[in-house]
Amino acid sequence: MAFDRTRVSMDIEKTIITLFIASDDFLKQCIASAKPEYFESPWSQTLFKWISEHFEIYGDAPKERIQDIFNAKALELPQEDATIIEAVCQNLSELSDKLTNNVGFYVDRATTYFRNRSLSVLAKNMQMSIDNGHYDAAEKYLVDFRKV
Length: 148
Description:
Elements (H helix, E strand, L loop, with lengths): L9 H13 L1 H7 L11 H17 L6 H9 L5 H12 L1 H8 L3 H29 L3 H10 L4
């Protein structure tokens, strides 16, 4: 069995997820640009889904409530992801204090990251469709593409 290895910079994903959890301002400015598939790591995708659900209901960042969300949903996760998410939740306070002082800078970085990832995901999906001979599907990806 062959495995694909992809180098992922966890720093930017961890920063974005941390700010989504800790900063109402950052979350409100960036959530519309994000999709779960833009995050490369499974734990980031999971946290983003939880944050999005919370934002839809309450209209703000989960902050300390992320620990309660984790406790409620941890049993549904693979053990590896649960361990990583638990560590992110525990280190949240020390990271968020450093990051929330410069939200504008991180909004720009997140926007650039989401633009990059949206184009990468588009290219990957189109190439997969082309390789499988699904040309209509490849064209549909292009037509449905929404610029970040």
